[in-house]
Amino acid sequence: MHLSKKAEYALRATINLGIATEVGRRTIAGAELAEANRLPLKFVERILQELRDAGLVESHRGKFGGYSLAKPADQIGIGQLVRLMDGRLAPICCASENAYQPCTCPDEEHCGLRMVMIDVRNAIANILDRYTVAQVVEVTLRKMRRDGIVPPFANPESFAAAGTATSGKADPADGFLAGLSQLANLTQDPHEHDHL
């Protein structure tokens, strides 16, 4: 699977709208969303229009207008967004459930490549369909607080930094799944295992 720029920008915009909601911002201007992610404004506006047409984003007019999520972030799936923008999760069209097209293989039923690509599709779908925008926002904000980073759209004066800034290098061990499991550990009852 190759995530298109369109899907990447849609995911970033939607996650940022979720972050804005969590830090108390009702709406975010399209230009502000584009600037926060260093993305081209015209492209972001087209993507926001598609998200609005799909019922995932609302637009608001007026002096304090902009965009907001049209439904709770826990009702917007990551896989749903990727499919909306890219159409399919499968690396090849003959392995897709939602956008199937026959390939040039003479015996699709017994094609080893197709079987492997179906497994790839299933693995990707199992991860993307498991998580919502709300979960990504929660893990992102927790990591930002840990590292003393002010979240996008937050008022720096009202943000209580809890950690120290890090180098900014991506650590594979610090990915989303690791962050989600750390979050689960933090929310468990500390006395849960006392009876063991």
- Radius of gyration over alpha carbons? 20 Å
Order of helices and strands: HHHEEHHHH
C-alpha termini separation: 45 Å
Reported by name, the CATH topology of the largest domain is Arc Repressor Mutant, subunit A
Main β-sheet description = 2 strands, antiparallel
Structural class: mainly alpha
Architecture of the largest domain, according to CATH?
Orthogonal Bundle
Q: What is the H level of CATH, i.e. the homologous superfamily of the largest domain?
A: Winged helix-like DNA-binding domain superfamily/Winged helix DNA-binding domain
Shape: globular
Low-confidence stretches: 161-168, 190-196
Count of DSSP-assigned helices: 7
Taken together, the total number of domains comes to 3
- Identify the CATH class of the largest domain: Mainly Alpha
Average pLDDT over all residues = 84
DSSP helix fraction? 40-55%
Numbering strands along the chain, what is their spatial order in the largest sheet? 1-2
β-strand amount: under 5%
Characterization of this structure:
The protein has 3 domains: 71 residues, Orthogonal Bundle (Arc Repressor Mutant, subunit A); 42 residues, no CATH class; 55 residues, no CATH class. It is built from 7 helices and 2 strands. The chain has a two-stranded antiparallel ribbon with strand order 1-2. A hairpin with a 5-residue loop joins β1 and β2. Helices cover 46% and strands 4% of the residues. It has 196 residues and is mainly alpha-helical.
